[in-house]
TrEMBL record:
Molecular-function GO terms, alphabetical: methyltransferase activity
Region listing for Disordered, in residue ranges: 1-24
Example of a GO biological process term: methylation
Protein name: Methyltransferase domain-containing protein
Pfam name, any one: Methyltransf_25
Organism, as annotated: Actinomadura nitritigenes
Keyword Transferase appears in the UniProt entry: yes
């Protein structure tokens, strides 16, 4: 089940993704797609989609990876599943613009949605599998929807401290007295699958084998210039708990410090910060 309104984390599930976190995700769709370009390429290579594949995209967001899968599987079908209605509205609009008739979306919690058994050739996800309340149930549910011999391919983040795009902005904000809201240890959040042993354990109990967990390190283009990136971080869901409590003078000082921290990463092509993900593949 998704989390309830009692869970104040912006990444806790139903409320955050259907509320301000979801709005943030839609507003910054193009930024995120561009930011993740090189990681997306790695995921799609690992997913190795064939023309007739049936593909499940878990936590599909605004649907960039679903659309790529649909283009790569013109004789197959793609189902994007996501818990957030505002995000899916964007995904549906984009797929319609492209006229992708083999792609559909379903609003559902991937943890509990009744998926057809042994139906899909591939389940994939670009950073959409770290937000489950019950990851055991979720990975079991996803794995049983794969045909025997079907594949799983997903990206998830390594530890926050290995991710410059988190460390640079949030160490500044944390110096103002509060930690960013990125999920408590073991709770749903961007870093809940940072431990490869945990990934291996979850996938094994779900009935997967041939598990490979490879590091994927890329520089992310977070924005065009320093003011753009500052505005992005300032309104980031994980920052709202810190920034929201600041008076005007403190906020102005924090933004000044943030600007100084981000400036060294400006290049003629934009502001780039490092990232470390896991690229996970497995078979059923
Ligand atoms: C970090 S975003 C990634 C979105 C997309 N895969 C992308 O790369 O742009 C995480 C996505 O997972 C979705 N999500 C969170 N919990 C979920 C759940 N239990 N079931 C299905 N989707 C979920 C969110 O609504 C959000 O769209």
């Amino acid at each position: 089940m998704a989390t309830t309104s009692e869970d104040s984390s912006p990444f806790g599930g139903e409320d955050g993704w259907n509320g301000s976190t979801g709005r943030h995700w839609v507003e910054h769709e193009d930024r995120h797609d561009r930011m993740l370009t090189s990681l997306t390429t790695r995921l799609i290579q690992a997913a190795d989609i064939s023309a007739a594949d049936r593909v499940l995209d878990v936590g599909c967001g605004c649907g960039e990876t679903s659309r790529i899968a649909a283009r790569n599987a013109p004789e197959g079908e793609v189902l994007g599943v996501d818990i957030s209605e505002p995000i899916l509205a964007r995904a549906r609009a984009r797929a319609q613009q492209e006229g992708l008739s083999n792609l559909r979306f379903q609003r559902a919690d991937a943890e509990s949605v009744p998926l057809p058994k042994a139906h899909f050739d591939l389940a994939m996800s670009r950073f959409g599998v770290m937000f489950f309340n019950d990851p055991r149930a979720a990975f079991r549910n996803i794995a049983q929807a794969l045909k025997p011999g079907g594949r799983l391919a997903f990206l998830c983040w390594q530890e926050a401290l290995q991710n410059e795009h988190i460390v640079v902005p949030f160490s500044v904000l944390a110096s103002y007295g509060a930690l960013p809201d990125i999920g408590a240890p073991g709770a749903p959040g961007p870093f809940s699958l940072a431990d490869p042993d945990r990934i291996r354990e979850l996938l094994t109990q779900a009935g997967c084998g041939d598990i490979e967990i490879r590091p994927a390190q890329e520089r992310l283009r977070v924005g065009s210039d320093v003011p753009d990136v500052l505005d992005y971080f300032r309104h980031h869901p994980a920052a709202s708990g810190i920034v929201g409590g600041m008076d005007e003078a403190t906020l102005s000082k924090a933004l000044h410090d943030l600007e100084a921290a981000v400036r060294p990463f400006q290049t003629p092509d934009g502001v780039f910060l490092g990232s470390s993900a896991w690229l996970v593949t497995a078979g059923r």
